[in-house]
C-alpha cells in the first residue's frame, strides 16, 4: 500500500484536480462556444422563421448520454484513487496527536512534549491523530491538501509529508463559533535533525506558567502582548480595574486573584465589556495545581514585566533558525531581539510603548470602534467630551494627551465608557514618544 | 384565441374581484394567483434583505481584521443570510410563487386542487418567516450557527437557535403542503386533452420537485425537532458523552438538505425548458429526455447526501459509494444542457430579457455544475470542502442557476399576470451589469477557496486580501445591476405600457387567457388540441 518513492498527499490530490479541471474546461468551452454560435447564427434578424421544427434525434441523445457517463466515471475513479492515497498511511509515519478546542490547537508528540504549532520533520511522513474536546473543528492544511474534521467522541486522522522546509498555514475549517477564524496556527516543517533536537529539548522552567496557558487552550483567545483577540489580553491583567457586565449591569472590578479564579471557573458571571460571552467554564476541567500555576503566572504579569511577546504571533518564527534555539521551548522565541528603539526614533518607540502598555487592547489604529476611541486621526482632532457632567469640545493636542493618560476619568469622550485606568508609570518622555507615533496615524 | 383586455382600473381580471376589502382580499384569498403574488412579493422582499446581508458580509471581508462589525455580529449575519436565502427565498422561490401563479393555468385548471390548504401554506410560510425574524431580537441573541445548525455547537450556543429551529420546522410544513397540492393538481385537474406528454416542462419540473418536497422535507422537520429536544431537554442523541453521535445529525440534516438543492434547482430548469423553445421558435428538443432527467434527478438526488461529509469521519466505503452516486446524478443535468442547446439549433432566436436570463442560467449552472464535480470527487473534495470554493460553487448553482431562472420567470410571466410590460432595454442593461458583477464576485471566491481560505471566516490571513477585495468590488457591481433590474420591473408592472396579447409568441395555455387573467382563469373549460411547444398548430408560425 505504500508506493515507493513516496507520493506526497499534494501530488496525489493534484493529479485528480488536473484531470477534473481539464475535462471540465473542455466541456465549459464547448457549451459556451456552441451557445454563442447558435445565438449569432440563428438570430431572428437572420432567420425570422426557424429552419426546422426538429425535436428529437435518437443518435444524438444516446451519444450525449454515453459520453458524459464515461467522463464522469473517469473523474470518479481518479478522485477515488487520490482519496485512497490520503487514507493509506506510510509505515514509517511519525505519530503526533492534535487536540482541537475552542479556539486553539494543542499538539502532543510521542515523548509527551506539547506545542501550539505543529512541528514536523521534512521528508518524513507524519500521522496526525485528531480529537476534539468540545465541538466540531476541522484540521486543514491547504499546502498538503489534507482536511479532516475533529469530532467529539471520535478518532480521526490525516497523514502528510512536507517535502520542503517552511511554515504552512493550518486552519480550522469547520465552523466552531466566534473564534473560528482565529483558530489558525502553522505547520513548521524543519529538517529532521532539528526536529529531533527540538523534540528532545526540555521546556525552560520559567515558561511553566505559559505552558499551562497553552495546555488549556487559553492562548487561543487571550494574547500575552496586549493585542486583542476573542477575549481580553493577559498583558497587565493582574490588579487592573476592569468594567464588566454582570447580569446586564455594568460595574467596575479589580482583577485580583479571586476575580481571575472566578473568571476561569464561572466565566459567564462577569463579562468584560466589549467582549462576547463565549468562554466555556473550566470548572472540573482544570486540575487544582494547574489553576494555582496559572493564577500565579497571571497575577505576576504586571506592568514591569515587558517584552514577553509570546506564542500567538504567527510569523514570529523562522524554522531555519531553530538550531540556535534548541533549548528554547519553541524555536524563534529566544531569538527575538531585545526591543530597543534607537535614540531619536520616537515614532517606533511610541509604537512599542502602545503595544507594551496594552493601549491597543482598547484603542484601534484603523478607525474601528473598540472599548475606547480609535487612535486613528486622534491628534489634532476636535472631540466632544463629558467633563463634570457637561459636554464640552476639546482639541486633542499634547496637553490633552497627557490629561487623557494621567487622569483618564476626568474627560470622557462622548459615547464611550469611563473604563480606562490611569497610567502614572508613563513618563513625559514616554508620552511624547506616543504622541509622535499617534501623529503618524492620520 | 385570446381577447386582449386593455388594463383599466375597473376591469383588471382577478385584480378587480376581491372577496374582502383591501389587504384582506389578499391574505384571505384562496385564488392561486393572489396567493402566488403574496408569495412572490414576500419572497422578493426576503431576497432583498438577504442580498443586503450578503453585501454586509462582503464589506466586512474587504480587509483582514475588523472592518465594519465584530466577530459575533458577523457570525449572526452570515447565519441569517443563509437562513433567509435558503428557507425564505430559494426553496419557496419558484414553486410557491411561479408554481402557484402559472401551474394551474398551464394545465387548464381553474385553481389548485386544495385552494384553502394553499392559503394555509402561505400562512405557515409567513408564520415561519416572522418566527425566524423574531429569533433575532429575543432570547440569547441572533443564532450564530450557520444555516446548517451542526451539533454539538448548535446544542451548546446560548443564542436563540431553538426559535430558529421552530421556524424551520413550520416552513417545512408550508413546503410539504404546497408539494402535496401540486401533485394532486397535476394528477386530477388537467384540462381535457392535456395528456401527460402535453404538459409543459415547467409543470413537469414542478411535479418532480413536489415529490421531493413531500418525501424529503419531513426529515428536516424531524432533525430540527431533535435539535430542539437536545437543547431543551438534553436528549443526548447527538452528544457523545451520553452515547450520542454528532455525525448522525449531519446525516439527518443532509438527507433533507441535499434533495433540497434539487427542490431549489429543478423548478429553475423547468423555467428554462419553457423559455428557450419560445424564444427560439422551436419545440423543446428531447422533451421526453428532459422530463425523464427531471425525474431521475429527483430520484438519484435523494441518494447523494453524504458527499457533504467526506471529511467528517464517515467510512471510506461510504465515501466511495456516495462519490460514485454523486457523479451519476451529474449525467441527467448534462443531458438537459445539451437538449437546451439543441433546441436553439436552426431556430429563430430572439434575445429578449427572459431569454438572456435563461441563457445565463445555462452558462452559470454549467460552471456551477462542473465545479460540483470537483466536490463530488473524493480526493479533490478533501481540499476544497468547507472553503470559499464551496461558497463560490453553490452561489453559481443557486444564484446563477435558480436565481437567474427566478429573474427569467419574473420577466417572462409577470407581465402576463399584471397586464403591463417593463422596459426591455433597461432590463438588458441591468442583466449585463449583473453578469459582470456576478462573475467577478463568485469566480474570486472560487479562486481564493482553491488557495485554501475556509468559509465562515470573519478574519483571514493577509495572502487572501487581494481576491477578497476583488470579490467585494464584484458584489457592488452586482448590487447596482440588481437595483436597476428591480426598479425597472416594478416600474413596468405597475406603470408600464399595456401588454399586447401573447407578446413572446408562446403556444402554451397560460398565454391564451386574457391578461390579467380572470379570477377562475378560463371563461369556459379549455380543450387542449396541441402540445405546449407546437408553434405551427398554435398559429404562431
Highest CATH level, the class of the largest domain in chain A: Mainly Alpha
Give the rounded overall mean pLDDT of chain B. Answer: 92
CATH domain class name of chain B: Mainly Alpha
Any idea what the radius of gyration of chain A is? Answer: 29 Å
> Which parts of chain B are unreliable, with pLDDT below 50 for 5 consecutive residues or more?
1-10
Per DSSP E runs of 2 or more residues, the count of β-strands of chain B stands at 2
- Count every helix of chain B, treating DSSP H or I runs of 4 or more residues as helices: 15
- The parts of chain A where pLDDT drops under 50 for at least 5 residues are 302-344
Structural class of chain A: alpha+beta
The H-level CATH homologous superfamily of chain B, spelled out, is: Cytochrome c oxidase-like, subunit I domain
Instruction: Note the overall shape of chain B.
Output: globular
Order of helices and strands of chain A: HHEEEEEEEEEEHHEEHEHHEEHEH
Computed Rg of chain B:
23 Å
Q: Explain this structure to me?
A:
The complex is a heterodimer of chains A (442) and B (541). Chain A is an alpha+beta fold and 442 residues long. Chain A has 4 domains: 9-87, Helix Hairpins (Orthogonal Bundle); 94-200, Immunoglobulin-like (Sandwich); 205-325, Cytochrome Bc1 Complex, Chain D, domain 2 (Orthogonal Bundle), CATH 1.10.760.10; 346-439, Orthogonal Bundle (Cytochrome Bc1 Complex, Chain D, domain 2). Chain A is 30% helix and 19% strand. Chain A has helices at 9-41, 58-87, 192-200, 208-215, 257-265, 288-300, 346-356, 398-406, 428-439, and strands spanning 94-101, 104-108, 114-115, 118-121, 126-132, 137-141, 146-150, 156-160, 166-172, 185-190, 241-246, 249-254, 271-272, 382-387, 390-395, 411-413. Chain A has a 5-stranded mixed sheet with strand order 3-2-1-5-8, with no helix packed on it. Chain A has a 5-stranded mixed sheet with strand order 4-10-9-6-7, covered by helices on one side. In chain A, strands 12-11-13 form a 3-stranded antiparallel sheet, with no helix packed on it. The longest helix of chain A is centred in the first third of the chain and has 33 residues, at 9-41. The model of chain A is unreliable at 302-344 (pLDDT under 50). The longest helix of chain B has 36 residues, at 71-106. Chain B has helices at residues 24-27, 32-60, 71-106, 115-137, 153-156, 161-188, 201-233, 246-280, 287-300, 316-344, 353-376, 378-384, 388-418, 424-450, 465-495; strands at residues 420-421, 497-498. Chain B has 15 helices and 2 strands. Chain B has one domain: Cytochrome C Oxidase, Chain A. At the A-B interface, helix 1, helix 2, strand 7 and strand 9 of A face helix 3, helix 8, helix 9, helix 10 and helix 11 of B.
